[in-house]
Design brief:
The chain has ten helices and eight strands. By secondary structure, it is of the alpha/beta class. α5 crosses α8 and α5 packs across α9. It is globular, with a radius of gyration of 21 Å.
């Protein structure tokens, strides 16, 4: 198999996400995934020719988070990468609230024209956990798509095709020493129970369960894209007028469809 650096570059260029000179920031916690992504862009993919920065948001939810922020500041300084940094003024009460604050900070960098793109380090194992979590909550087809590779405003997730094992091997070879977040091992959180307890059990019951969940996400995404194309095609047939957010439809043509 090709090295991760080669596969990462091939994937990036196939997506055609960025142009030469684009301002790209990596959302970096200092953990394994985001540190590998930052290292890939800084040292393994110079031909992308992007203006690289990193972004760190300290939620202040656990002891040691300020030390992580200070450690990252020193690391990116040594790597010659500018840093966007902020901290929660009030400790969020949940992981969901922390996520809102974090993405508010990251998306603000795009809205304020400080960067063109924000990169997050979600990878294939995150995708598996997300799809399984949504299944347990009774999601529909849209939720089965899992984490999108890109979304507005300017959020990209270039590590989605790669597994945690891929990233661990890259970190080992490059001698990266990521920060360890002890909350990742805490089974009080549902996602951690899925990661540490449920998924290993599923792999024991059905080897290859992770790959099957990834295929489910991929197939669901393709199905929705096909359905969206069909809806657009038929919408043109029945639409009489569109002005702003208001659409006028032809009632007689609508009644021709089954179930009308």
């Amino acid at each position: 198999m090709k090295p991760l650096s080669v596969r990462f570059l091939d994937h990036w260029e196939a997506q055609g996400w960025t142009l030469s000179g684009d301002r790209v920031t990596v959302a970096c916690s200092g953990g394994l995934d985001s540190l590998v992504l930052l290292h890939l862009l800084r040292f393994a993919a110079p031909q992308l020719d992007v203006q690289l920065t990193t972004a760190h948001f300290d939620h202040g939810m656990r002891p040691g988070s300020a030390s992580d922020a200070e450690w990252l500041r020193g690391l990116v300084g040594a790597w010659g990468i500018p840093l966007h940094q902020d901290r929660a003024t009030k400790t969020p009460e949940s992981e969901a609230a922390a996520r809102v604050l974090r993405y508010g900070f990251l998306e603000g960098l795009v809205h304020n024209n400080e960067v063109d793109w924000v990169l997050t380090a979600h990878q294939a194992d995150d995708q598996v956990e997300t799809v399984l979590f949504r299944i347990l909550r009774g999601t529909g087809l849209d939720g089965l798509r899992g984490i999108p590779a890109s979304r507005d405003p300017g959020i990209l997730r270039p590590l989605l095709p790669f597994t945690r094992t891929d990233l661990e091997e890259y970190a080992r070879v490059c001698r990266l020493r990521p920060r360890i977040d002890p909350t990742n091992a805490c089974t009080r959180f549902a996602r951690n129970r899925i990661r540490h307890q449920l998924l290993p059990l599923l792999e024991d019951v059905h080897p290859g369960a992770r790959g099957a969940l990834l295929r489910l996400a991929r197939n669901s995404r393709r199905t929705i894209e096909a359905l969206d194309a069909l809806v657009d095609l038929h919408l043109e047939r029945v639409m009489v007028e569109k002005e702003g957010s208001q659409i006028v439809l032809d009632r007689d043509r609508m009644m021709e469809y089954p179930g009308s």
